[in-house]
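Notebook p. 47: complex prediction with flavin-adenine dinucleotide.
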Amino acid sequence: MKNKQITTKKKYNIFKHLTLRIKSQADEYIEVFSRKELIKAVQYATYKHIPYYVLGGGSNTTVTQSTYSGLVIVNRYIYREIVSETDEEVNIRVSSGYPMSLLVSEFIEKGWEGFEYHMGLPGTIGGGIYMNSKWMHPIRYVSDCLVEAVLIDRIGNEKKVTKDYFKFSYGYSFLQQTKEILLEIVFRLKKKSIPLLQKRAKQSLIYRKKTQPFGVSTCGCFFKNISKIERKKANVETKSAGYLIDKSGLKGVSIGNFKVSTKHANFIVNTKSSQSDPCDLIQLVSLIKQKVKLKYGIELKEEVEYLT
Ligand SMILES: Cc1cc2nc3c(=O)[nH]c(=O)nc-3n(C[C@H](O)[C@H](O)[C@H](O)COP(=O)(O)OP(=O)(O)OC[C@H]3O[C@@H](n4cnc5c(N)ncnc54)[C@H](O)[C@@H]3O)c2cc1C
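Predicted complex, structure tokens below:
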């Protein structure tokens, strides 16, 4: 493959592609709009022996350095088609760059059950499956209705897999180890009444707005909730990382432009919203970890992904 087949932008500031709006410059940058372009971008990076990172909505990604020595691929591959349909259910193929919010609304409008509780979840389908994003009231995962998917490996070869391959668990998919890229996913959705789905979506959104900071620059929950064993060790009633951070006296604490939300302690918000310095974030994250460790003996682990 010839590397001149794609044109990338050089020394590109990606802050507007990260919902935390943190300053970072990628050596190379490209937006892709089709499966072909996504595959080509991966092959290009492989050919040039440079690292690459696929960004969906950038709502669970942050940085630790102000530069990324590689190619950032922003996935805008948006496509969906019905594969098969009966009176009871529909199998639908969706591309990985599909915006979650659009998909949730469209599925509700069609009366297709499975995504309505994710109303208000930012990002793309690709990011949602990679993270196995979830809603806890009631418990629903973005992967619940997944039947099969097409991936590309790190050198750009396609591979068809079924749900088992992903080894989904809380906040985890096998892609976090293989670093393969999702191209398309087939979901199987049951047909339900539209008002029922609208009601569920509304409930989720109301709960979200009540418990989370809304309309601010953030990347959602920064740390993973703790395990059952850790909960026992910490001698607390909940697995919520936000609870531990709150009880460690960190709500409202800030370094530079980054602040622990006063509404939900597991949310770090960027109060200036433009190009804030990653060094301040690193310091705040390390302060949170130290204080929680000191009070509860627990090492918090990041839920967010670092672009490094
Ligand atoms: C206000 C707010 C609320 C949130 N609420 C929730 C919530 O309720 N539940 C929850 O679980 N999360 C929540 N999040 C976190 C985040 O929105 C989700 O994890 C979301 O699904 C991430 O999607 P994304 O496309 O933005 O991922 P990105 O941040 O773009 O990427 C995340 C990871 O996925 C990888 N990735 C992206 N696309 C692909 C692909 N095509 N193939 C392979 N890997 C890929 C990236 O390389 C990266 O490692 C919230 C975030 C915000 C800002």
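Notes: Residues 19, 53-61, 75, 96, 121-124, 126-128, 130-131, 133-135, 175, 181-182, 218-220, 305 surround flavin-adenine dinucleotide (CB under 6 Å). The helical segments are 35-48, 100-110, 125-131, 175-178, 194-211, 228-234, 241-247, 278-296.
Next step: compare against the earlier run before touching the bench.
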